[in-house]
Structures are given as structure tokens and as C-alpha cells.
Design goal:
Structural class: alpha+beta
Oligomer: single chain
Strand order of the largest sheet: 1-2-3-4-5
Shape: globular
Largest sheet: 5 strands, antiparallel
Order of helices and strands: EHEEEEHH
Distance between the termini: 20 Å
Number of strands: 5
Radius of gyration: 15 Å
């Protein structure tokens, strides 16, 4: 299977690090929450750190013309999210988008602002959750982002 974007590899759980299957399972559960996200079964790995972080590209069966054929999915010890390839044409752009969206959530919570119009986060908008997410985002920005293309 050819990769639709550079700097990613086809998912092969037999050759991935142990624990990547858990990240893939989390990704599948997350995507199953959206009726438009019908997977073809084609998945590529941009980065996998089992138990911590996974950035995958998933091919979708477009249920309508408004559904992109591919979406990036971020999972791990962080809130899951999807990022359209329309806005992120590379793993690095996908992670930058994730960091920006989650950073906006952290900032809103820190400033006692509403989070209703922001990317959903699977946690209560508390200062404690914002601080925990901020630490994880800092790690992703300093340790993972520079290594992505």
C-alpha cells in the first residue's frame, strides 16, 4: 500500500513496538464515535510512543463529499482528536494543529473562559486538568514536534 503523505509508514502491528496496538485500539474507539468516520482499514503511522502518544493517518470511506478521504488522529495519554488533512498536509502540521487547539483549551480554562466553541477535550475544564494537559503539550512540543517532518 502506498503512503498518501510523505514521512509516514504503513501500520503493521507485528513490527511496531509493543503497546502500539493499544494506541490503535484507542484510535478506533475514538473514531467510532463519529458516524462520518467509516474506516477503510488503511492506517499509517507518523509516530508511536506506546502508552504516551500516537499520531496516525486514517483513510476514510467518504460518506459525503464534505468528508475528507484522510484524517490525522492523535491519541495517547492526552485527549484524542482528529485533524483534517485539508488543514494539515504533514505529520508536523497535524501535531502543530493539535498543540494549537489544545493550547487554546488550556488558556481558556486558565482564564475562566468558556470552552464550548473549542476542540472538545475528554476531561472537565478544571485548572488541574488544564495544568496536566499543559505539561503533556509542552513535552510534545519540545520532544516530538522537532522530530516530525
Amino acid at each position: 500500500m502506498t503512503t498518501p503523505f510523505p514521512n509516514i509508514r504503513t501500520l503493521d502491528l507485528q513490527s511496531e513496538d509493543p503497546g502500539t496496538d493499544d494506541l490503535v485500539s484507542r484510535m478506533n474507539v475514538f473514531l467510532s464515535e463519529f458516524s462520518w468516520a467509516k474506516q477503510t482499514g488503511n492506517v499509517w503511522v507518523a509516530r508511536s510512543i506506546p502508552g504516551v502518544f500516537g499520531l496516525f493517518l486514517v483513510e476514510l470511506n467518504a460518506v459525503s463529499a464534505s468528508v475528507d478521504p484522510y484524517t490525522w488522529v492523535v491519541v495517547g495519554d492526552i485527549p484524542p482528536a482528529y485533524i483534517s488533512t485539508v488543514y494539515a498536509a504533514s505529520p508536523k502540521e497535524a501535531l502543530k494543529g493539535y498543540l494549537a487547539e489544545m493550547g487554546a483549551w488550556v488558556k481558556a480554562v486558565e482564564n475562566d473562559e468558556a470552552v464550548d466553541d473549542l476542540m472538545p477535550v475528554n476531561g472537565a475544564p478544571t485548572k488541574e486538568n488544564a495544568e496536566a494537559l499543559k505539561l503533556r503539550l509542552s513535552f510534545l512540543e519540545s520532544e516530538i514536534l522537532p522530530s516530525l517532518n
